Amino acid sequence: HYLPLLRASDTAERERLWWEVKTLSHLNFRFKNKEREDVQSENMAYSLQFYPPSEVLGAGELLYEDWNTDLNNKIDKLLDESLIGSNMRLHLTCPDQEMPSSFLEGDPSPAQQQAAENAGRVRAQNEEEDEVADVPKEEGIVLQKDLEKELLDPAEVGTCVHNVSVGTGEGEEDGWEVDEWYGTRYKVADIAQRIVKNAGDWFSHLTDKCLCHERLGTLDIEAKRQVISQMSLPPANKYISEDCKMVAEPAPPHTSSAPAPIPTPTQVLDTPTIKGWHLLDVSMEAPRAAIFLSLNSAGLDSSARSAALVRMLLEVLELRINEARYMAEEAGITIDITNYSFSAPCYGLRLLLHGFTGKLEEVLQDVVRELESLSITEEVFGMAKEKAETDYRNRKFQQPYLHSIQSNQAVLEKPFWSDEERLAELHKLTPTDLAIFHSDFLTQMQVDALVAGNMQEARAKMLLLDLQNSINMGKLKQPLPPHTLAQLPGPASHTVHTQLTKDAEHLDSAVSVYLQIGQQTHALDAHLQLLCQILDKEAYSQLRTREQLGYIVAAEVSTRSGVTGMRLAVQSSRAPHDVHARVEAFLVTFRQMLQDMDDTTFESYVDSLITQKLEKDRTLHVRASRLFHEIVCHTNCWNRRDLQVEELRKTSKDMLMQLYDTFIMPGAAQRRKLTSFVVGKAALEKGCFASLSPHNATLLVTRSGRCAGMSLEEARAPEGEECLASECVLGPPAETLSVHDFVTSLERFPPLR
User: Fold this and answer.
1) Do residues 664 and 485 make contact, with C-beta atoms less than 8 angstroms apart?
2) What angle do CA 399, 311, 571 make, to 5 degrees?
3) Helix locations, 9-87, DSSP H
4) Ramachandran category for residue 343: left, alpha or beta (phi over 0 → left; psi -120 to 50 → alpha)
5) What is the pLDDT of residue 191?
6) Are the beta carbons of 84 and 110 closer than 8 angstroms?
């Protein structure tokens, strides 16, 4: 009904909508964020296909003229001649022989009813077997033949050209074609005239005929009129601001040979409730600011139930602010809410706002007001619960290498709650449970905050004080629990965590090798990042390109809770122990490659990494995110990148060799290694890891002592063997433990707090 509403609107309402779009377009064009050079050049090359060279710099930007009568007439013409039912094209993708009942006019035919019943029985059976609803078992998509006939009946085709694109799975049908590149089956055909006429009724105007449409069910005419009367064009956007004033002048360009001054936040508030920081930053020359809040509360990680309640709090809050978020984003203000961080501890919710300064405070006030007085109705709770459950269920279909990294975290982090544990608790929750949790969350809430950008210190402090006064936070606060990482057995050990892939149909397996180094220092960070930059390139070249183990091969520095290490992950259709053997063999040969590297090549790697670290932040959001990470970790090292650059300039190849020989090289004296095997369908079909089953889906084996590297031929293990396939371990025999018992037995690194 949006098009009929627009057609029925008066000139004043259209002019108001035009002004809003024009104002936002001009603001975004005037204060456009800097782009990476490669992205900008790619966009310009693409625009050259449509615009002359003289206009390519502004191509893609909508520059609106002032409102006038001619524009109003053009809109009427567009609505009357182009945006009509006879110009409609439908793209229909239909899984598991299901046709959306709302697609066809009137009651479903017997064939449709039978197809829906059959699909319902299939879903019910799938739920019983897999406890997963609404997930297709086949990649292909099938359209039930009777429904296809009713929709595309040639006898009912109109004179206009209409198309329906339908993906299909197995089975050859008349008229179906096969895509040249991907093999997808599809059909292009005219739409039945009945469907075109039906669409014309909806697109043309709000008439009694439209009101009688079956889509509104069995409501009487007046009830239908009432439903339609509640529909309207978007209201005036209160978050649009024309205030583009800068609160300070940007600093002149830095010309001295001395290092440029580093933007440093200052603490403007320190109470039991809020630790607030402020950074005046107008260097981007745009009237934007960022307000980042970490809403912490003690005890949120104490159980899987608490973790599920945090997720529900997030989902309900997002539903409640949905309309405000839409208006804010249209006005150039983004709102991000999350309950997890990959790189820093998260004890509750993260609320991140960024955009034009003029209305940023008003957006924050509206979001905080909604959080404080959160209304948890049965309807909203059900919607939030369904969304969270679907997300947790669908995570089983993630790539296996992500599951292997997650199994690393299950061993290293405490507390850690799996998706399955959270989902099990989510099923049990009620609106009353969430209401009680919401009250406790606010009472114990402690806030870490950063206000950065085009905002003066006094205004930022007042904003944070208003936040403190608007929420009924308790005065006495429980200390937040320390978030620590497990210290793998030492001085040298190898722990293997083995599990079946969560998606039983996924062919690939994955191996994640995590080598724990120790607590962070600037020198260690610099050396490990440089080593990983070299190793990642060589691993990709050797394991992916030459040996063709799989498409996903990556090496990265893994830093969490102040502890650093290196992770090498591979996803492959080959058996995990075979992939593991190749990874170990690569690490042996890489040492020789590193030792033989000439000074010129080594210096090029060093210079490349230094250039990356000295690159200026392109946007305020990037800068604020980097500083906020320091705040939530309570490290407050604002010049971390510069200190790492100093260490890089002192780095020699011998330093990297020493690091490699001590912690990474197979057989190293202090090599603490955690390997995660995720076993896919292809490996199981070959008889590998036959002892694993859905009832015994994980296995953890640990061995202590130094391990000696072996050649690839020596490292190969017999099919089906699930021992440490690629190294000979000296010391006590292997010990099989539960993950819980093993994690509990480990010592922890000192917390950051």
Assistant:
1) no
2) 10
3) 11-30, 37-47, 69-81
4) alpha
5) 72
6) no
Give per-residue pLDDT as tens, 524-544: 999 999 999 999 999 999 999
Q: What is the pLDDT of residue 39?
A: 85
Ranges under pLDDT 70 in the chain: 1, 58-62, 94-175, 194-225, 227-228, 253-260, 342-343, 474-477, 690-737, 752-753
Question: Could you give the 3-state DSSP secondary structure of residue 557?
Answer: strand
Determine the distance from the C-alpha atom of residue 35 to the mean position of all C-alpha atoms in its chain, rounded to a whole number.
Answer: 21
**Residue 463 CA, distance from chain mean position:** 29
The DSSP symbol for 58 reads: G
Which residues lie below 8 Å from residue 199, measured CB to CB, with a gap of 6+?
85, 88
Structure tokens at 727: 């190294």
Q: Where are the alpha helices (DSSP H) in 292-359?
A: 304-320, 322-330
Query: What sign for the dihedral angle of Cα 721, 725, 731, 734?
Result: negative
Measure the CA–CA gap between 7 and 203, rounded to whole angstroms: 10
pLDDT tens, position by position, 646-692 = 999 999 999 999 999 999 999 898 999 999 999 999 988 887 776 66
Residue 473 contacts residue 507 (beta carbons within 8 Å): no
CA distance 153 to 222: 35
Beta strands in 242-299 (DSSP E): 266-270, 274-280, 288-297
Q: Where in 399-462 does DSSP place strands (E)?
A: 413-414, 445-453
Cβ atoms of 269 and 461 within 8 Å: the answer is: yes
